[in-house]
Specification:
It contains 9 helices and 4 strands. The protein is α+β, with helices and mostly antiparallel strands. The chain has 2 domains: 81 residues, Glutaredoxin (3-Layer(aba) Sandwich), CATH 3.40.30; 111 residues, Up-down Bundle (Glutathione S-transferase Yfyf (Class Pi), Chain A, domain 2). Helix 1 packs antiparallel against helix 7.
Length: 211
């Protein structure tokens, strides 16, 4: 399998974590999102992923999967051990709910394409962009903080889907200097992940295309 990725993409970071947790080896193909106007817009990559975003996962038979939630579901279904979701349906829904807060509510407003629109098209300065990011991260993290457990990872002693979404979003929040002191449960999960080999292997700084 090949993973088309960019070292600082939080969506690609999610998939790297899941692959590492499940012990799945893939070939990484870096797609630079800035250089030369963004390599994701090149015709060769557009033919692979018409949305022109990362990640994309190319299977051994040439099938290409896009969008990190869909890729994560595929990995969970095809490589079920170790699981990213608990067995009980209600518990699975709780985990998916937290993942959705991050993936659907927090992440899109601070995606690179949205931020570029704020800067270049609407003319907002960096202070205004930072305030925009902090607004949506803060609202989402307040909900996540209330929903996750009081010890261990988000929902127990082992990492799961919620942690796969949370850790990349924390990395992004720190990039933009979003205040995090109000979220002790989230910071606990971050500290645990920092000591976990799968999260360490997936970290942006450890990627072959890191700058």
């Amino acid at each position: 399998m090949r993973l088309y990725t960019y070292w600082r993409s939080s969506a690609a970071y999610r998939v790297r974590i899941a692959l590492a947790l499940k012990g799945i080896a893939v070939e990484q193909v870096p797609v630079h999102l800035v250089r030369n106007g963004g390599e994701q817009h090149a015709p060769a990559y557009r033919a692979l992923n018409p949305q022109e975003r990362v990640p994309a996962l190319e299977l051994d038979d040439g099938t290409v999967l896009i969008q990190s939630p869909a890729i994560l579901e595929y990995l969970e279904e095809v490589f079920p051990a170790p699981p990213l979701l608990p067995a009980a349906p209600v518990e699975r829904a709780r985990v998916r709910g937290v993942a959705a807060i991050i993936g659907c509510d927090i992440h899109p407003p601070n995606n690179s394409s949205q931020l570029a629109y704020l800067r270049r098209t609407l003319g907002h300065d960096e202070g205004e962009v930072a305030a925009w990011i902090a607004r949506w991260v803060g609202a989402g993290f307040a909900a996540v903080e209330a929903l996750i457990g009081e010890d261990g990872f988000c929902f127990g002693p082992e990492p799961g889907l919620a942690d796969v979404f949370l850790i990349p979003q924390l990395y992004s929040a720190r990039r933009f200097d979003v205040p995090l002191d109000a979220y002790p449960r989230i910071l606990r999960v971050e500290a645990l992940a920092a000591r976990h080999p799968a999260f360490a292997a997936a970290h942006p700084a450890r990627q072959p295309d890191a700058e």
